[in-house]
Amino acid sequence: MWSGESVKRLSHIASDGRVRMVDVSAKPGKIKIKRATANAISRNRIGKGNVLATAQIAGIQAAKRAAELIPLCHPLPLSNVEIDFEMKRSAVSATCSVRTTAQTGVEMEALAGVAIALLTIYDMCKAIDKEMEISDVRLVKKTKRLV
Asked: Is 123 a catalytic residue?
């Protein structure tokens, strides 16, 4: 049985108990890196290639394949996946935004996208930075659209 308080906590249930569709979610995360690593990424001096371009492609692929990676995750028709990066002195922040026309949320797809984008940065930079740390992968925003 659902109480009014527990209904309010669910993103797909309005405060009056009506169901609503969650259409877009953005998931950020970051990877702490040394300043020298940030400089090497910015100057495209990582031996494995363009780090952010590769991480962007990897994140998009991961979002599209989330149902293959996560048990019991439903395959969804994605209409858009975007991976954006913000370079800082000692970190790279990544955000994954996903859209679908399906009547469900896309949290798992966005989480997979940002996590794999950050893991790709880690993989490409591990030879020069042994102290990298991935953190703060979380939901920032959901935008709902009623059908």
From this structure: yes
